[in-house]
Design goal:
2 domains; Arc Repressor Mutant, subunit A; alpha/beta; Rossmann fold
């Protein structure tokens, strides 16, 4: 029996999941002799705006993403943007962090990325309570030691959740939660792919979610491994060097009488996790 346009459209729109090869349509049960007809049908679907081929991957397709949620901006009260989370070292005074928000923290190894992430947990417990999720690369021994220094009086078990996770963070991001990723690795053979990982995390946040994502950066640069494209998604992009942090991107800056991009916030770290703020220098 010959396949029909309607039959294939129904499968693509209602049963396909993610990216698929056209030969796997209907679970690969279409006879090879009809594969040329399948290709023709898929190109017709593209012309109708129902499916799109994946650039650079011959024969791979995805169904059109037609879900839209209207943002009724006129129903929001007030003129000022709010801050969705509190960040260490007084960073909130430099920019608005409205939901949803992606904060990227690029740092040299062993210079404060984990301390930054753990302090985000500490500073936001009262507001976010049991809706905080830390995805950590460190093991339980290191995490236990640091949390005991950071939160010696915290109730046990604490309200927030901690999971050991090394990859595929978008799969476990909690929509509308405060998600903290320490840290997102870059494939040094394909550094450009990390941009897609950041996009996937951002898409998974929902309308009220926040993600703080730590990444490593090379010495002498402000941006993370993966290059300038890593700045595409973040609402706020922070760069941590030895003893100070500075800004790479502030999407919604607050009005100030000096340039935040010329600012360096100096700090020290006590007991491996507690920030001690130093001078703020405007260069």
């Amino acid at each position: 029996m010959n396949i029909t346009q309607q039959e294939i459209e129904d499968w693509v729109l209602n049963e396909s999941d993610g990216v698929f090869h056209y030969t796997k349509i209907k679970d690969g049960l279409v006879d090879k002799a009809q594969h040329p007809a399948l290709r023709t049908i898929m190109h017709r679907m593209r012309e109708k705006g129902l499916a799109y081929n994946i650039i650079g991957r011959d024969g791979y397709w995805r169904k059109a993403d037609l879900d839209l949620q209207e943002e009724q901006w006129w129903n929001r009260d007030g003129d000022e943007q709010g801050d969705s989370i509190i960040l260490p070292l007084g960073i909130n005074k430099y920019g608005h962090l409205s939901k949803p928000a992606l904060v990227l923290v690029a740092g040299l190894y062993n210079q404060g990325k984990t301390a930054f992430c753990l302090n985000v947990v500490k500073l936001n417990i009262d507001e976010w309570k049991d809706n905080i999720f830390l995805f950590a690369s460190e093991g339980i021994e290191q995490l236990s030691w640091k949390f005991r220094k950071l939160l010696p009086l915290i109730e046990k078990p604490p309200p927030f959740k901690v999971y050991r996770r090394l990859d595929n963070f978008a799969d476990v991001i909690v929509p509308n939660g405060l998600n903290i990723v320490d840290y997102l690795r870059t494939d040094m053979d394909k550094p450009y792919t990390v941009t897609n990982k950041l996009l996937e995390i951002n898409k998974a946040l929902g309308s009220e979610g926040v993600a703080v994502v730590a990444m490593q950066k090379p010495p002498g640069r402000k941006i993370a491994f993966g290059g300038t494209s890593t700045a595409a998604e973040p609402t706020l992009y922070i760069s941590i060097d030895k003893g100070y942090l500075e800004f790479e991107k502030i999407k919604a800056p607050k009005i100030m009488d000096y340039d935040p991009y010329s600012t360096k916030i100096h700090f020290k770290i006590s007991q491996g996790v507690n920030f001690i703020e130093g001078d703020t220098v405007v260069e």
